[in-house]
Amino acid sequence: MAAFFAAARQGRRDDAELGTGVWRRAHDRFRRGLDRYHQILEGTEDDALYNELVVVADQLGGLLPRVRRVCVSAQSSSPSTGLDIPGALLQVHRALSRAGNALATTAEAAAMTRLDGERWDVTSAGLDSVRRRAQLVFDDVEEAERALAAIF
After folding, report:
1. CATH code assigned at 76
2. Fewest CB atoms within 10 A around its CB: which of 17, 83, 90, 108?
3. Burial class of residue 108 in the structure, from the number of CB atoms within 10 Å of its CB (0-12 exposed, 13-18 middle, 19+ buried)
4. H/E/C letters for each residue in 75-135?
């Protein structure tokens, strides 16, 4: 029961800080991508592969507070309650959207690497693909931060 109330409090806090529009959606999309990546980790039986994928998961998890800060700042300067992207922050939203999409493809690459690792030996090519895709997530979050800083 306590978890229910904690989730409700977090939802109200998110509504207050992120609004209900595009900034909330961008933040939630990123968080869902992280959740998906962690779900893939849960099914990994190979210890060596799991350990490699956890390192990437930890690095990606460290981006969530940064994404939240960008979204909170964007919401406070250009509040959004719908699907319209404030024109001045178009580049910020575009970078956040790319980060969310790149995170989804990183999770997909981790899933494929996990499948390959369970059938054969863990290949560095699969892990390299996960790392390359994760780097795109980092790049996109950094771009969102730069675009927001350039406006303010």
Report:
1. 1.20.1420
2. 83
3. middle
4. HHHCCCCCCCCCHHHHHHHHHHHHHHHHHHHHHHHHHHHHHHHHHCCCCHHHHHHHHHHHH
Q: What is the pLDDT of residue 120?
A: 46
How much is the pTM?
Answer: 0.89
Structure tokens at 92: 């910020």
Please tell me whether residue 41 adopts helix, strand or coil conformation.
helix
Contacts of 107 (CB under 8 A, 6+ apart): 33, 36, 37, 40
HSE-up (13 A, CA, CB side) for residue 122? 18
Kindly report the average pLDDT of the chain as a whole number.
90
Q: How many domains does the chain have?
A: 1
Residue-range definition of the domain harbouring residue 38: 2-151
